[in-house]
Design goal:
globular, Cathepsin D, subunit A, domain 1, 8-stranded mixed β-sheet, mainly beta, 277 residues, 2 domains, single chain
């Protein structure tokens, strides 16, 4: 076991390269509008609020943030939301987003105005950070404790000793720029891949044609009790049926049950029981 841990640390050190730090960095998260995790980013010397959206795929900044960054938007990037609707955004290249003790750099961020989606009295938003901003790192998301941890090779090796690894794959769209994690749920019919979405305040959403594989009624309009296994971890939640372009979606109320560690360069994911009051 000790030798295996040393090998893991050695392999991860090669991957982390210049991103490796001496100690893990803990970034506090707060609930924007009481629901979606958010964090502070230094934009032009001032703290700005960004959402954290694990299913966002692509980091986006608002037109106002673009001006503060001194970026000239150009071209177009195209993506699709989970219900299949198309989104076209201009791009802003080489975006630097400084967090406390961590510098995030995004190859191409989308430019999008959030104002039409928010209540009129909502606090201002500077953008939304997706996992493309952490593509070369390992991170731990603890929503219940309100923190995001950027791991070092050694802290990652220590953390996963007491966690359960579950099957995971990464979806990369928008010309390979976006990054969305999917976890496997096995059914009698076959394996489903559900995206992890801390930006959703729903529990679980299942694509209608796949509902019966999970013992759900595809014609039901309300919430249904779902009981499944996520890599050996019990998944019990209310589920809704929708017409989706993906297998399904696991939202923040369920993700809060776990401490989630993602080694993004190696496409590996571990779950550990979350904190309970």
């Amino acid at each position: 076991m000790f030798l295996r841990a040393l090998v893991l640390v050695s392999c991860l050190s090669c991957c982390f390269g210049a991103y490796a730090a001496e100690h893990p960095v803990e970034i506090p998260l707060t609930a924007y509008l009481g629901a979606i995790p958010s964090l502070k980013v230094d934009i032009g010397g001032k703290p700005a609020t960004f959402l954290l959206d694990t299913a966002g795929g692509l980091t986006v900044v608002t037109p106002g943030t673009v001006k503060a960054l001194g970026c000239q938007p150009w071209g177009q990037m195209t993506g699709f939301r989970m219900r299949g609707d198309r989104i076209d955004v201009a791009r802003c290249d080489n975006v630097h987003l400084p967090l406390p003790a961590v510098d995030l750099r995004v190859e191409s961020a989308g430019v999008w105005d959030f104002s039409a989606l928010l209540p009129k009295d909502a606090p201002p938003l500077a953008g939304s950070i997706a996992l493309d901003a952490f593509a070369d790192r390992a991170i731990t998301l603890d929503l219940a404790a309100g923190k995001l941890i950027v791991e070092t090779p050694r802290s990652l090796a220590d953390r996963v000793k007491s966690a359960r690894e579950v099957p995971m794959r990464i979806g990369r769209e928008v010309g390979g720029r976006s990054l969305t994690p999917f976890v496997a749920i096995d059914t009698p019919k076959g394996r489903l891949w559900m995206e992890l979405d801390c930006g959703s305040d729903g529990n679980v959403i299942v694509n209608r044609p796949l509902a019966t594989a999970l013992g759900l009624d595809p014609a039901a309009k309300g919430k249904q009790a779902l009981s499944a296994s996520l890599g050996g971890m019990p998944l019990k939640a209310n589920a809704q049926i929708m017409d989706l372009a993906i297998d399904g979606n696991i939202g923040a109320p369920v993700l809060k049950q776990w401490v989630i560690t993602l080694d993004l360069p190696h496409q590996r994911l571990w779950l550990a029981p979350g904190h309970h009051d």
